[in-house]
Structures are given as C-alpha cells and as structure tokens.
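Repro:
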Amino acid sequence: MCWPPRQQISQRAADAYLPGWAIQKAPGRLIDNHGRFDKLAKDVASVPASQFAGEIGAHFGDSIIESVIWLGITPTAKIAQRTGMTITNCGGGGTRMANHATNYDKFSFYRLADAIASGDFSQQIAAAMVIIGGTFPAIAARMASVDYSLLDYLIPSFGTNDFTGAGPTCPIGTNADITGATFKGAINYGIQTIMTARPNLKLIFTTPIWRTLDGTAGGAGSQLIDYANAMLEVCALNRVPVVDLYRRFIINQFNYVHWMGPGDGTHPNNLGQDLIGGMMAAGLFDNF
C-alpha cells in the first residue's frame, strides 16, 4: 500500500481536530473540549488563537476559588492559562450563593449581582473592613477594580457553603423563588439582575465539587447533590450553561486524598486546583 508522507498525515489529522480546540499556553499544545491533550498537537506548526484571547472575565466563588488553603495555581489562573482570557479572581472564603451572616452576606452572589449590575462595590468594601481576619479588603478591592461595562464573561462558583450553612441556613427553595432567602432564588435573582443590566455579559456557573461530607444532611437538611442539581435545574430554565463539577471532577471517597491532600476533605490541593481549572476552561469552550 502506498502511504502519503508522514507530514501530510499529521497535518490532515490535526486539521480534523482544529475546530473547537484551544491553544494551550505551552507552544504547540492543544486541549480538546474535555481538557485532554492531543497527542497530534506536537505535529501542528501553527494553530488558530483561542477565541477568548483578549476577552475579559471575572470569577466569583468561595475559598476553593480564592485558593488560600493550598497555594499554587488557582482554578482562575488555569482558566486564564488555557483560554488566553484576562480574568480576575474574586473568590472569598466562606461565601455563598444565598443569604449569609450580615457582613458576609454582602459577598453572597445575589448581593454581588446588584454590585455587578451597578458597578458599585461600596457595600462590599465597607463590609470587608469589619470581617475579622482573612483577605476580604483585598478581595473587595479586586472586585471593584473590574470594569463591568467591558466584562465579557462571568463565572459564579458557589454552593458548598450553602450546603453546610448554619445561622442562617440556605434551603434549596423552588424554581419560582427570586430572592436570596433560598439557593434557587439567589440564582434566579442573580441571573435576572445581571442579565437585565448587562445583556451582553455571558454567564457560566459551576456546581460545587464532591467533598467528604457528601451523602450527609447539610444545615438546611439537604445533601450536597441537591444543591448541584438545583443549580443545573434553575440555570437550564434560564438557559444559562453550567459546568457540572460535582459529577465530572474525578474525585470520590477512594481517591480524594490525592486530589485534596490528607486532613482536608473540601479544598482541592494544587493537583485538584489545576484539574478543576482546566475543566472550567473546557466548559467555556464547550458552551461559547
């Protein structure tokens, strides 16, 4: 059998993969829509730039996004690395989607939605000054530094603290809820508020990841999977995409020490942060 030169084979094979792929920061490396490396990428002399290059994003979430427990590459930084997007880490430890204690409540997603819509983060800056300890003054400053009139993408990553929340608790609620008193209501309110004020802004949510408390009842009596499912359901009704990290992040009771480290059943270590950041980036390529 007569075969064409190897260079032609490699180029044809690579060309078949190019649509929908992204350039990785390392030259000559590609990732597919599920975050995997293409073994043929080494044969590609040049690839199209990521459609996210030059775009601006903001990533809101809890301590898993802030990444103060395990220092190293954050999920937000991994998104920037894989997409070429300029993205600001607005994560804060202990924060929720829905209602919270007085000053922390200013950093709940439904309250942040008002600030994102108006561009006014004065309430967050004031609340940060009275939250004892932590990095909230710096977090509030980063939030306020973003020009939301120019923002292209917003990624809310909340839920694990709504699940465990006590004083006040965060019940799941109903699909019709539109206040921060419930988890579903906070999502509905946030989407409505942000998209009304900034209709050009593209939202993509991420569910909470598995943790060792999975299968137990949280502060409001629901389980972690209930919060993940609630987010999927409400976002589907609003036609807003979600990256389902609860099901897709390859972590469980058998291997969590590898991805979280000993003594921590909640926060991904450097390996885990790198992986979920890549999965979040893949979600952007999947949906936009």
